[in-house]
């Protein structure tokens, strides 16, 4: 599936006003949105971009060098960060009065018949360089219906836990456009110390804004299943642009820098050990 995207920014002081305007545009009341996003990174490092070598022993054979051609160098497999997303309610957070909750031993994604899944995995690709006036990227989301979602993510990569954060806001649906007005929260002083996602959540009042200004992000999204169908793709682009026109004068929606939505794992070449006197030999004269 592909997503067509536009983004805007709403100052905290205009939040309530924009909520009401969006309710009028979408002809619906806002749906509260509260999520936990757990970020994972592949354990193995990607090879250096452009590196093309054979592993193992080789024999040097004299051969005429091939002429250089204007062809792209073979690129090794790119690795990406992935997310585990949990739908939350305020009842899932710890008590604000400091009361101790029983510590859970693991996370559970068990779904009872008739209930919606709470956990899902999310992959988001780097947006392409399209000039259609909207940002376009490939994405894939899969519901987790049973078991320990954290253990599944560790084994599937294999991956390692990086960090977790929370998304709070409201969502609307306007035709095929999914609109969300949200901001990111985090637990201060904890993110760099965690080795795994929490099994018991902190009190909601203990979370701080990631952006101290309190500004909200307005995201407008259209999902396209058949990306290769030019008619379907153009219809989605036009619908998103119509919403962009509707919001002019209220919130300016635009295409963000595609690298700000980059989910690729950056390659860091290993540092060569410094030369020491132990491995330096002096040649006598």
Automatic annotation (TrEMBL):
Subcellular location(s) per record: Nucleus
Family per similarity comment: Belongs to the Mediator complex subunit 18 family.
Polar residues bias: start-end ranges: 274-285
Keywords: Activator, Nucleus, Transcription, Transcription regulation
Subunit-level organization: Component of the Mediator complex.
Keyword Phosphoprotein recorded: no
InterPro entries, per the entry: Mediator_Med18
One BP term from GO: termination of RNA polymerase II transcription
Chain intervals for the UniProt region annotation (Disordered): 45-70, 264-285
Pfam families found in the cross-reference section: Med18 (PF09637)
GO cellular component terms listed in the entry, alphabetical order: core mediator complex; mediator complex
Stated role: Component of the Mediator complex, a coactivator involved in the regulated transcription of nearly all RNA polymerase II-dependent genes. Mediator functions as a bridge to convey information from gene-specific regulatory proteins to the basal RNA polymerase II transcription machinery. Mediator is recruited to promoters by direct interactions with regulatory proteins and serves as a scaffold for the assembly of a functional preinitiation complex with RNA polymerase II and the general transcription factors.
Main localisation: nucleus
Claim: Transcription regulation is one of the keywords in the record: yes
Protein name, as recorded: Mediator of RNA polymerase II transcription subunit 18
A single GO molecular function term of this UniProt record: transcription coregulator activity
């Amino acid at each position: 599936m592909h997503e067509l995207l536009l983004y805007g920014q709403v100052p905290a002081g205009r939040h309530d006003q924009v909520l009401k305007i969006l309710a009028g545009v979408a002809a619906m009341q806002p749906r509260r949105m509260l999520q936990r996003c757990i970020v994972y990174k592949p354990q193995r490092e990607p090879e250096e971009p452009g590196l093309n070598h054979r592993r193992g022993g080789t024999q040097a054979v004299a051969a005429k060098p091939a002429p250089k051609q204007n062809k792209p160098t073979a690129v090794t497999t790119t690795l990406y960060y992935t997310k585990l997303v949990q739908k939350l309610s305020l009842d899932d957070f710890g008590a604000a009065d400091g009361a101790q909750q029983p510590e859970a031993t693991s996370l559970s994604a068990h779904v009872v018949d008739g209930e919606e899944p709470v956990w899902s995995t999310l992959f988001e690709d780097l947006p392409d360089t399209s000039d259609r006036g909207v940002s376009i990227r490939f994405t894939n989301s899969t519901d987790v219906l049973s078991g320990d979602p954290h253990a599944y993510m560790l084994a599937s990569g294999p991956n390692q836990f990086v960090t977790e954060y929370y998304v709070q806001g409201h969502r609307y649906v306007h035709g095929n456009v999914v609109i969300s007005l949200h901001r990111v929260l985090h637990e201060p002083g904890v993110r760099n110390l965690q080795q795994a996602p929490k099994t018991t959540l902190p009190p909601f009042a203990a979370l701080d804004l990631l952006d101290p200004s309190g500004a909200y992000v307005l995201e407008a999204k259209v999902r396209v299943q058949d990306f290769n169908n030019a008619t379907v793709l153009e219809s989605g682009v036009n619908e998103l642009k119509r919403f962009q026109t509707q919001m002019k004068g209220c919130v300016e929606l635009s295409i963000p820098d595609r690298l700000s939505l980059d989910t690729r794992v950056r390659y860091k070449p290993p540092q060569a050990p410094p030369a020491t006197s132990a491995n330096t030999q002096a040649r006598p004269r």
